[in-house]
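User: My collaborator sent over this chain with a note saying "see what the structure looks like." That's all I know about it. Can you take a look?
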Amino acid sequence: MARRRKTALAEAAAEDLFEILVVVPSWVGPVLAVVAFTVLWSIVPAFFPPTSHSYKAVIGTWSHTIAPFVGLIILVLWAVAEIRKRHRRKLLDDQEGLASMRDLSWQEFEHLVGEAYRRKGYVVEERGGNQADGGVDLVAHKDAETLLVQCKHWKAIKVGVKPVRELFGVMTAEKAEHAVLATAGRFTNDAQAFADSKPIELLNGDRLWGMIKEVKQDARVAIQPARELIPSAQPTEVAAVVECPKCGSPMVERVARKGQHAGKRFWGCSKYPACRGIREVE
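Assistant: Without extra context I'll predict from the sequence alone. Here is the result:
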């Protein structure tokens, strides 16, 4: 019985560590493995010498013995987490429009939406999968904001008001700032009317595709060298660059996701959210 309890605790710790490695930068995994190995191999035995004749010897010997295994386990979990993150990134980059999104499985659709919010600067926890998610597929955190996201990958029918009401109940219970219901299809008028008076954003297929295009474009701008953005030797290309009215940085074309201008395109500063300069698309 005790052995089963220890195994369950070890598995739970490994799962928690894996979830952390999924959301942290890539360099954290190897650094954590080195730190854990060093502590268990050298530091702990220094305080509990294996040569002593007391419980300290047991602790020192045990720590020295498990150090390589702990370091290896962390590296394996890190490698799996990196593969998972790469798959999520490729899934988003491969999307070409509504048709490709609708061809995804419901699990891939959840992963796609989660990756889109990661690229918008959120730390995303995936609650979906094969287990019960409590009415929420994703929980996104950014600064002090908590955003609940539910995905409905319904292709042939509209999403009605019932899922929106359920999401509002979950949002209220978890005291989240606001929530999002995403689908590759459309919403009924009743669903839209209910969400309009609540802090709930409805992402239909068109608006979701606009969001994905936006984060893909932002990623391309981020990796472009400055000389490609403003080529000094080609004045005709310089004229084509739209400059931010606030900071003078290049701007990227985006789609408004909510408010009275929802669905309309506009120029947004490439340094958003540090700069919130906008221009109208002529």
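A starting point for your reply to your collaborator: The first strand starts at residue 123 and ends at 126.
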